[in-house]
Write a structure and sequence with these properties.
- The complex is a heterodimer.
- By secondary structure, chain A is α+β, with helices and mostly antiparallel strands.
- Chain A is about 60% helix and about 10% strand.
- Chain A is built from 18 helices and eleven strands.
- Chain A is globular and about 90 Å long.
- Chain B has three helices and six strands.
- In chain B, strands 2-3-4-6-5 form a five-stranded mixed β-barrel.
- In chain B, strand 1, helix 2 and strand 2 form a beta-alpha-beta unit.
- Chain B is elongated and about 80 Å long.
- The N and C termini of chain B lie far apart (about 80 Å).
- Classes of the chains: A alpha+beta, B alpha/beta.
- The interface between A and B is large, with 42 and 36 residues.
- Strand 1 of chain A pairs antiparallel with strand 1 of chain B, so a sheet runs across the interface.
Chain lengths: ~675, ~160
């Protein structure tokens, strides 16, 4: 019964979204020349429209929340008459994973996507009405576009990916969830990613709303004024873009962390097409964030902001498509049928096409006037854009190339990691070197290298490089990277230290930029300083790696809630003293009839000793694989700090437009 | 007028510089891309044309036999028409077993054996890597033409 109600709620939400789209996008009173209006009835009908939109948005959110919760109920109660639950769940699974298993599959995750979109829409509406940061015609358009997108997605879910499908003969037990996905980090990974992707969808709606009717408004209003001032648009965009960016950063970091400890060999990024598909929107969002900075401060780079908002959404939708179309061989890919992929591609094409067409109209209405010369700071941000977008383009090439070749010819191929690292390193390096200098530039005036910070930066970089050289016993590449990381971190410290006053967003900026240095240091350490060993150990034997000793005490067999396990007990010793006990396992999940390897790791300063238990050999010995991953924690610490920096810089109420504030 | 002309000249110059840098970057990227491509081959492709030793390729098919001694693994991948012997040193993924699909990456050694350094994990029971599935589908068609099928004892060399 519950599932049928959920299904009904889904379609009702689709209807509400369609109504919202129609109401929000309909030609508005106020777009006609003034003399055709009569004031009191206009005001009343506007208020009515606003109220109806609010109700429709609330209905959409509540209905989708109800549908989501009803589906979750089905998972929690292990209702195997629901096809989705039967295919992806099992009664013996722990409660947490029964719940999070809802979005571990295509249909459930699309429902989550739609729910997040509805919630974003309602939140935006409440914010717009409360803060009055944008005029009513604009936020009505935003909601109209959000409704249009939502109807398209709900149609997609309802027609091709119905999560509420019933089975006429329910099985006695479910097929279970892939044990590799029964994990807290992975459970949290999709929600954060979707908060990011769907936030970019909202930014897209804001951009479309800005472009809507711009020609008609232009004709009606005074010659040189905009219906919505670009600066106000930028400020409103920032309020909603930043949380999306923060969530996307966290989602990617979580995914990387999960891959590290679950996939068994201590890698943290594989240049997997699906990983790239989450990185590309992040790069676009970062470029958008920084271009928006210029828009808010100098009312320039409007085209960049609009096009990047479209690109961010397009890339996130493309990423969703890639995961579901069954085109790629990846640990991520949902094995799905092509019709789902084609439908998503159609939504993507339609949305992008509409956006670009609107943008073309804008360009036709506003010939680019003699643009004021970009000041030094804006120029540096432009250069930053160029670096980020070139990086994005090269990743896009590396991701799309195999797909294109496969569609055109009959060859199947993959692009190895060396391509990505080789192509991205120069841009990353260039960006890292210029970052601390760029933040010290003024909006106006001449380009000049700020002398005092430059000296300190050089000292810091040299110090960092030499320290790394000494500590890492002469690893040249790592020392160079450490110098760059020190340069970045010192630059961030100087950025905050040399400026007064120090609003919270300055701290946020410094933290986020410094976190990049932390991240780089972690990547360098984990990639270049790692050590690996493969041993054959009998219980009682010990081996050494990187100055630490590992002793296999015994291997214990035990039964878990839904698996059987062989657990090794490895004592970690340093200079004879016991430091920790590592417990790697090999598990056999009875329901799914699959084996998994649970690696064990223990932190050593900022790195890890990482151990994997292999098969038992005929003579009673075990294969043990051990790594030393120095500084690897800096990778996720860096990601987390970056997200924290972004969060610190967020304000829900855009500041009043009072001239060009420095920084911000 | 002169100021405007100079400004336009500068803008044109910057644009030209930008395009040149873009072209250089693209050439660099494409060159790196070509060097990092790893083609997928089915056992039948290998039988038809063996890649030169040292060239990195991916190989896929169904695991026909599997012998292991400690960390040293020797297994055969087949598409039911031809098979290739693969050696691998390390721990194989948990879902690796006889009768299931697998994709490996590595290169041929001079003696003709394929030395893999990466063995890909499937992530659930129903999923087969698309490359392996395509290879098997192709060989199934081949066998059909011969009047045989995958279910018969493989008529291999």
């Amino acid at each position: 019964m519950g599932a049928e109600l959920g299904h009904l709620a889904l379609w009702l939400a689709a209807a509400a979204a369609a109504a919202q789209a129609w109401l929000g996008l309909a030609p508005q009173a106020g777009s006609k020349p003034p003399q055709a209006q009569s004031q009191p009835p206009q005001a009343q009908s506007k208020a009515r429209v606003a109220q109806t939109l609010t109700r429709l948005s609330a209905a959409q959110s509540l209905l989708l929340l109800a549908a989501f919760l009803l589906l979750m109920l089905g998972f929690v109660r292990s209702d195997f008459s629901l096809a989705l639950v039967a295919a992806h769940s099992h009664a013996a699974k722990p409660l947490l994973y029964r719940i999070t298993g809802l979005w571990g599959n295509h249909e459930g995750s699309m429902l989550l996507w739609c729910l997040v979109l509805a919630l974003y829409g309602s939140a935006f509406l409440l914010w717009a009405r409360r803060t009055r940061a944008v005029p009513a015609p604009h936020w009505r358009r935003v909601l109209g576009y959000q409704g249009a997108l939502q109807s398209a997605f709900l149609l997609y879910v309802g027609l091709t990916s119905n999560p509420f499908r019933r089975l006429s003969e329910p099985p006695f037990e479910g097929a279970g969830l892939n044990p590799v996905l029964q994990d807290p980090a992975l459970a949290a990974h999709p929600p954060f990613l979707y908060l990011g992707f769907v936030g970019l969808a909202l930014a897209f709606c804001q951009a479309l709303a800005f472009l809507h009717d711009v020609r008609a408004q232009r004709r009606a209003s005074a010659a040189n004024s905009w219906p919505l001032a670009p600066r106000a648009f930028g400020a409103a965009l920032h309020v909603w873009l930043l949380p999306a960016w923060v969530c996307l950063t966290i989602g990617i970091a979580l995914g990387s962390f999960w891959a590290y400890y679950e996939l068994g060999w201590g890698g943290f990024w594989f240049w997997d097409p699906v990983e790239n598909a989450s990185l590309m929107p992040w790069l676009a969002a970062t470029a958008l964030l920084h271009s928006n900075l210029v828009l808010r401060a100098r009312a320039a780079l409007l085209s960049w902001v609009l096009l990047l908002a479209m690109a961010g959404f397009g890339l996130s939708l493309f990423g969703t498509f890639l995961v579901r179309a069954g085109l790629i061989s990846s640990v991520h890919a949902f094995a799905s049928d092509p019709t789902r992929g084609v439908f998503l591609l159609a939504i993507l094409g339609g949305a992008m096409g509409w956006g670009l067409w609107r943008y073309a109209r804008l360009r036709a209405a506003f010939a680019p006037s003699a643009a004021p010369p970009l000041g030094p700071r804006a120029g540096a941000l432009m250069a930053n854009n160029v670096f980020l977008l070139t990086a994005l383009a090269t990743i896009l090439l590396g991701t799309l190339f195999p797909l294109l070749v496969e569609m055109l010819g009959r060859e199947r191929l993959s692009v190895g990691a060396p391509y990505f690292t080789a192509v991205l390193t120069p841009f990353l390096l260039a960006m890292a070197l210029l970052l601390p200098l760029g933040v010290r530039l003024d909006w106006r005036g001449r380009w000049r290298a700020p002398r005092r910070p430059l000296a300190w930066l050089l000292v810091a970089a040299l110090g960092g490089g030499l320290a790394a050289w000494g500590l890492a016993a002469g690893a040249a590449a790592f020392s160079a990277l450490a110098a760059v990381a020190a340069w970045l971190m010192a630059g961030a410290a100087l950025d905050v230290g040399l400026q007064r006053p120090r609003p919270l967003r300055l701290w946020g900026r410094g933290l986020a930029h410094g976190a990049l240095g932390v991240l780089l240091l972690g990547v360098g350490g984990a990639s270049w300083l790692k050590q690996e060993s493969l041993w054959r150990m009998a219980p009682g034997e010990a081996r050494t790696i990187g100055g630490y000793e590992l002793e296999l005490r015994r291997v214990r067999l035990y039964d878990g809630p839904n698996f059987q396990s062989a657990q090794g007990e490895l004592q970690l010793l340093r200079a004879g003293r016991a430091r920790a006990l590592l417990l790697p396992e090999r598990r056999f999940y009875t329901a799914e009839q699959t084996r998994t390897t649970e690696a064990a790791f223990h932190h050593i300063w900022l790195g890890n000793i990482y151990v994997q238990l292999g098969e038992r050999q005929p003579d009673g010995a075990y294969i043990v694989r051990a790594w030393l991953h120095p500084l690897v924690w800096l990778i996720w610490l860096g990601g987390g700090l970056m997200a924290l920096g972004g969060a610190l810089a967020w304000r829900w109420h855009p500041p009043p437009q009072a001239g060009e504030a420095r920084g911000g | 007028m002169r100021v405007q002309a100079r400004a336009q000249w500068r803008r044109a110059g910057l644009l030209l510089l930008g395009l040149m840098v873009l072209a250089a970057v693209m050439l660099f990227a494409l060159q790196e891309l070509r060097g990092a491509l790893v083609f997928f081959r089915a056992p039948s492709d290998i039988a038809a044309a063996r890649p030169p030793p040292g060239q990195r390729v991916r190989l896929g098919g169904m695991v026909r036999s599997w012998e292991r001694e400690g960390v040293q693994h020797v297994f055969e991948l087949t598409d039911f028409v031809h098979h290739v012997t693969v050696t691998y040193r390390g721990l194989v993924p948990d879902l690796f077993r006889i009768g299931q699909g697998a994709v490996v990456e590595g290169a041929f050694a001079a003696d003709g054996r394929f030395v893999a350094d990466l063995v890909m994990a499937r992530h659930d029971e129903t999923y087969m890597p698309p490359e392996a599935a395509a290879a098997l589908a192709r060989s199934a068609r081949l066998l059909e033409e011969r009047g045989a099928s995958h279910l018969d004892a493989p008529p291999e060399r």
